[in-house]
Amino acid sequence: MTGADVRDIDPGDGRFTPSPPQAPAWSPAASTAVPPTIDSSEFAGWPEIVEHLREGLVLCGPDGLVWQVSPVAQRLLPEIVVGGACAAFDGLDGSSAEIVHHGRRLRVRRVPLSAGPTCWYVEDVSEDTGPADELAAERARSAFLAVVGEKLGNPLHPDRAAAAVVRLAVPTLAEVAVLILAPRSGRARWWRARRDDDDLPTLDRGVLAAAELPAAVTDSLHGVQPHAVDWLAEQAVEAGWLPGMDAADASVRLVALPGRDAPVGVLLVARPAARWYTDDDLDLLRAFADRAGAALTTALLYRNQAEVADTLQASLLPVEPAEVSGVQWGTAYRPAQAGLRIGGDFYGSHRLPDGGAVFFLGDVSGKGVEAAVFTGQLRQCLHALHRIEAQPARLLRLLNDALLESTLAHGQGRFATMVLGVVRPHRDGGLALTLAGGGHLPPLVVRSSGEVEQLPLNGMLIGVVPDPRVSQVSTRLAPGETCLLYSDGVTEARGGRRGAEQLGTERLMQALTGCQRMPAPALAERVEQITCDWLAQRDHDDIAVLALRATGTRPHRHLHAVPTPTPVVREGTTTS
Amino acid sequence: MTTATTGTSPAALYPRYLHCLAEADEPAAVEVARELLDAGVPADRVLLDLVAPAQAEVGERWARNEWSVAQEHAATHVSERVVASIAAYANPRGDRGRIVVACMDGEWHALPARLVAEVLRLRGWQVTFLGASVPAAHLVSYLHRHDAYAVALACALPMRLPQAHRMIEACQRSDVPVVVGGRGFGADGRWARRLGVAWAPDGPTAADLLGDERVLRAVAPADLAHLADDEYAGLVGRRGELIDSALADLAQRIPGFGDYTPAQLDSTVSDLGYILDFLAAALYVDDGSLFTEFVDWLVTVLASRGVPAAAVGATLRHYAGVLHDFPRAGAYVRAGGASLPAAGRRHSQSPEA
């Protein structure tokens, strides 16, 4: 028998006896035993020691024809015959190279011998590089999941999260990825990413009636893992999710994205059948699905809570002052907690039947949501009370009694400081103001000369004692003059060189001097700006500003058909 | 462009409009805009050829000390009312995605951003304008609550670039693409590239850029490896101490320093602070030209208010001296000092006797 008899033997066909300690997992062919089909007499020239080397030897004459082949080399290169050419080594110029031969990685060294012939040393290094490849694959998977974690780790808007999930799935997990969210009110929304020519995914989205969802998707949403993967591809094609893909030539997988109780959605991934999903791929897909599910669940939870919070906040936000003839309003509002749009400062106004208006600005004790809720109660109180009393000091006392009653009943012990005024347009285009103070910072007036004047107003806190001392002051605004109410978040803003100095009333008045030509909204914004510049990004208390400017428009008396009502409550009853 | 000579072009009515701003006459200014719209001038042309250049002029007049801050504010307020009335007149109905437009926290120059917002609205986008000085937390909670296709962020002053970067990152973490604009990113947007964000010089360019989400997302990441030298963090940490030392230096050099009014002292402190803030921003984006450009601007503004360039030069030399262990910052300060007008430099070489 010659070497020609083994020329076409497949090394993976199991004909060789495996040697258990050295057998690589991928093939039973690794053996150090001499194949029984080879006549050992031909290798008489090899010392026994050669048979136990890891390297096989191929000895070639100067003409390149094979002289001798060692048993190990014969096993690795079964097509080599003595006297024949050595095709496997064609094109190897250097002294050392690696080639892939019959699915194995061979390291080949070429050593010219002193006597003239050349010896090729051949070593099977498949097992050496196998773990390296696996390590690289594992690293790629970890890197992918790290990117996924980074992108989906932040709370997102639900639509953003859904789009991010499909975008991330392509191209690592699929050529086409479709995310179907669990139906809400009978409609299921889906997002799809498709791999484009330049590897960047193209996104689109749509809606399906819950009844039209493929059965496999519905099952998966109900927590049933579909096993009939065969017709999953048909279902996906039928749903129109895999354009340009043939069901017979697609490898499709479906994985549920875990939610709080039931799956929050399912992810359908597809790629050409040639790249089927291996067990490793499926593990990666499931790991991805866990992260995607968590991100979507967080997003939906956040959205639902934000919806509630927004609705409640909206009811507590200051309402822009009502339009009054001859008055230009300006406001600024900046709550202490930027993420929250509400705080313990409040302002507002209510129109009076005689063409004037009640206006107010104040600050309640405490901060944040609780304080905001209290401002809501207070504003509702005022809304009701201004209908029966329009004289500022008496109105403030009424409010004090009402608050005292409710805080006593609830045992809250909350109180407020505020300025409350009534403005009435005057025949000459100016405004007549009457203001009452309940322990709040006195208002400023920017006169037409450009000077800034502080109104003498103080009084006691509202909601603390039954019969508080309330101070009252009256003034006139000529056309172009502005009255400014503000909260202590302005003057107590801490800044300066070391961030410890208060802005103070002096600086505020200085900054407003000469601002007589500013419209009220610009003036209010200027106060906010001075305060924020002073703060230089530091934390602050709630900031509120209410400015009212006499525009110089004369009141149109004939427009007010409603007669001025006589006060319903008499003076004596308000303070008792 | 055939209307250019008929008297109802933005260019022809520009002087009249500027006069309205000077007088803070809102009804008359609105009237000018309405005349143009009634004559068939497209709304975006009125915004870009009338309102925008007029607002730039307002800023220049403030810088030249021709207008007080109060006048500038009043004029800006009138321009905002004009923009609102143009928007109401055009009343576009957007069916494209939602764009959120916001100014950086601490930025009060909202009008340029407002103009961009209106141009985007005219191009069919649904626009939410969050206004001036939007806290980052407010913007992020808005993005969580309402899905946005993209965010357009305005920054007028380069000294806010570090905060701008934090805000950009917050949006990107919310997976919302960002486009930025405004002079704060440099005339050619070079600091936007440094921060890894798309940049547009004006509204129409921003509108084109926003049209392609893939381009918006394909921006090179931020390149801030130089922050590893901790000069930025160190300078921010020593801000208060450095201002104190500069004040002490001024008190020694300027004879009348003790007689400064509290208001003069406040504005000196804030000027000294601005110098450090711009220096910090220059360190953040690793570009000394940011600081040099600021010094040029500061000298112009102070000169129009009677403060000689020599005063700036002396303070820069003081900062360069105390920042000896900040190699990058020191180099920027020296380059900024070298760019001062020749007269100012000569002066600074022979300090007050």
From TrEMBL, chain A:
Coiled coil: none annotated. Residues 1-13 have a biased composition (Basic and acidic residues). Residues 1-34 are annotated as: Disordered. SMART domains: PP2C_SIG (SM00331). Gene3D superfamilies: 3.30.450.40, PPM-type phosphatase domain. Keywords: Hydrolase. Residues 327-550 form the PPM-type phosphatase domain. Residues 24-34 have a biased composition (Low complexity). InterPro entries: Bact_Sigma-Reg (IPR052016), GAF-like_dom_sf (IPR029016), PPM-type-like_dom_sf (IPR036457), PPM-type_phosphatase-like_dom (IPR001932). Pfam families: SpoIIE. PANTHER family: STAGE II SPORULATION PROTEIN E (PTHR43156:SF2), STAGE II SPORULATION PROTEIN E-RELATED (PTHR43156). This is PPM-type phosphatase domain-containing protein. It comes from Micromonospora gifhornensis.
UniProtKB/TrEMBL annotation, chain B:
Residues 96-230 form the B12-binding domain. SUPFAM superfamilies: Cobalamin (vitamin B12)-binding domain. This is Cobalamin-binding protein. Keywords: Cobalt, Metal-binding.
